[in-house]
Amino acid sequence: MTDFGGAIKQSQKFNLAIIGIPFDEKSCYLRGAAKGPQAIRAASTGKAINPWTELGANLEEEGVLVDLGDVDASGNFQEVFSRIERSVLEILEKNAVTVVLGGDHSITFPVVKAFARRFKPLDILHFDAHPDLYEELYGDRFSHACPFARIIEQGLARSLVQVGIRAATGEHRAKVLKHGIRMIEMKDIKDNLCLEFSNPLYISFDLDALDPAFAPGVSHHEPGGLSSRQALSILQRLKARIVGLDVVELNPERDVSGITAAAAVKIIKEVLGKIVILNKSK
Ligand code: MN
Ligand code: MN
Predict the structure, then answer these.
(1) CA distance 240 to 249
(2) Distance CA 33, CA 216 (A)
(3) What are 193-251's pLDDT values in tens digits?
(4) I need a labelling partner for 187 at 20 to 30 A (CA). Which of 75, 168, 208, 246 fits?
């Protein structure tokens, strides 16, 4: 059951919504991310956590957060992707901030398509060990290693900033240069990183951006990543109007005592807290 420390409401009216996408058919190595949404919900129980965020928002009182369940992920992937786009757009048309629980990272392409229809221009902040900019992987243009190549190709993002990268190839670097992507690699990361965006901001958080020591429950272990604290600080320092978030690539089959699922919950809570506080100050 979803809970987020008691913040989840049953309500027809809402301004913050969670939706799950139990889909991992585009994973190139291990399957398991389809079980991500369920594991994140289970880790959000109010028996383990409270609804307050570090920045002082009480998610139970400030804002109305609902869980709209899962998108039907059966059938061929083109059908699933259209369903994802439609479901997200429906939420955005109700003016609610949308939090997407993945699923492998391929789902970010249809999700961003929906956001780009609603928000023009749209900026994107992408946390990941991998740039996910392959033109194709093993012959598949819709692999979870390709979503940002598709997003750039369709002109869906005004600016793309990537954080946590530590597995860039020559092909990725060429794309980064060609398209003016800002890739902040782990080897260059500075303390107190403060990112500022001028357009509505979508955040895509691949949990393998975190070091495997903090988040072992992902399909691709890439050492030398962000600590949970580094990631949270970057999110807390953001200067932007955040309109949506996805947290993807949780593979519960590789998790240890649910610590990666707990990290996912924490990231979602802190981003929602930022949004709530920003709305209050308006
Ligand atoms: Mn990714
Ligand atoms: Mn990744």
Answers:
(1) 24
(2) 13
(3) 999 999 999 999 999 999 999 999 999 999 999 999 999 999 999 999 999 999 999 99
(4) 246
The residues pairing with 124 across neighbouring beta strands, listed in sequence order, are: 160, 202
Q: How confident is the model at residue 280 (pLDDT cuts 50, 70, 90)?
A: confident
Instruction: Using the mean position of ligand 2's atoms as its centre, give its distance from the Cα of residue 185 in Å.
Output: 13
> What distance in angstroms lies between residue 32's CA and the mean position of ligand 1's atoms?
14
Q: In this structure, are residues 71 and 37 in contact, taking their beta carbons and an 8 Å threshold?
A: no
C-alpha of residue 47 to centroid of ligand 2, in Å: 30
Asked if residue 282 has pLDDT above 80, the reply is no
pTM over 0.85: yes
Contact criterion met (CB below 8 Å) for 228 and 266: yes
DSSP code per residue over 20-57: EE---TT-SS---GGGHHHHHHHHT-TTT--SB-TTS-
- How many A from CA of 7 to the centre of ligand 1? 28
Distance from the CA of 280 to the center of ligand 2, in angstroms? 34
| Closest ligand by atom to 219 CA | 2
Element (H, E) at 262: helix 259-280
Q: How far apart are CA 20 and CA 253, in angstroms?
A: 18
* CB burial readout 209-237, b (16+ within 10 A) else e: bbbbebbbbbbbebeebbebebbbbbbee
How far, in Å, is the centroid of ligand 1 from the Cα of 127? Answer: 8
pLDDT at site 210? 98
**Residues whose Cβ atom is located within 5 A of ion ligand 2:** 128-130, 206, 208
